[in-house]
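Appendix B, example 12.
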Amino acid sequence: MSDLSRRQFGKQAIAAGLATALGATRVQGANDRIRLGFIGLGNRGDQVLDGFLEHRDAEVVAICDLHQPYLDFASRKIGGNPRQFKDYRRLLEVKDIDAVAICTPDHWHTLMSIQACEAGKDIYVEKPLSLVVAEGRKIVEAARRHQRVAQVGLMRRSSPVMKEAVDLLRSGGIGKITAIRSFHIQNEWPNGIGNPPDSEPPAGLDWDGWLGPAPKVPYNRNRAFYRFRWFYDYSGGQITNFGAHYLDFSHWALGADAPLAVTAMGGKLAVHDNREIPDTAEVIWTYPGGTLVIFSQYNTNASPADRRGSTIEVRGAEGTMFLDWNGYEVIPEAVCEVDFPASTPLDRTVDDPWMKRRHTMIKATKVEGKDGTPLHARNFLDCVRSRKACHCDIETGHRSTCATLIADVALKTKSYLEWDAREECFTNNSAANKYLRYEYRPPYRFPS
């Protein structure tokens, strides 16, 4: 694949950018369809495609993937013979595409997003937004500079039931929030993803093109397709994959956009495979107001009894909220409005007022909702028309992604790191700042 520098591609895309920028007004009409291009159609890309296909005003006219079976599968699902591309730059040159959905491995998000903005396309980008912090900031700058509508695929932001949960929390519905804990629990013991040897790539797969700006390494089937998430060259692992969802909800619930500090411990403690990311980890962030946010990754299928199968639990002084992908439950806490009981058996009596006046202050609640992906796609389509900010605007998605990216830095450096969200750097460990960006493999160039 030839040089993909921003400057070189920008020269090629000027005409397309002007035409598509004007096209932003074309989709204002209520009966007009929004013409979409899809880049990356494996796994999550296929799920996002389903979310967009639910909406009659979304017309997928072009698709791009390096793997021909994915292109053929998507074409059958879409119908109407969408144009197929192996090189995403050719898709971005199509003048009448209004917006693109980017659902590739994380290490490709930045170049594709920036070049799509330069070509005048609005962008829907899957999470995690970027592989390193500096990349995410470059995407934000490009979207703002080219006045593009941009949605990051943290779809809880478009779920009415999740908004209801956030409104309850931010109104003090469970009292002061002291901790938010999230879980990724998956038993992969003992062999995990295995130890396949390096080999030749499958016929028709452009391995060099798949690697893109990442370091050149031999093909290994564990590095491609979904299993790329187990290697740091392409992903931050489950801390950034599922963690981006959990930290985004935590930010939303707290009314915050960045932690004050982070620390992490973990490693490959259970499985025997060729992965790089941990199978077991604990991450702790501190947030303004004294709240701890915690991500726990365990190599087990057993869940703590009080979790009710939830992925997030929000601990408040008056109750606990348990959340899964499609709903939430509030369990009241029994509290007492008098002093805590006496500290020794000799001081306690049967008339101890603390024992008699213990009660709940809130009501138990259980609410169910729907999956957020189609709703998130709907919000993006509406914003392409209105030019308003999306539910998970590019800055919001970047901030939520950053929290998880710096957690991986804490894990790699075995550090407690203090975070300056304004300057986007660590203030107590200058050596750790080198992990906030990386040098692309030539001929690719880090965005300037």
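The mean pLDDT is 90. The longest helix spans residues 6-26.
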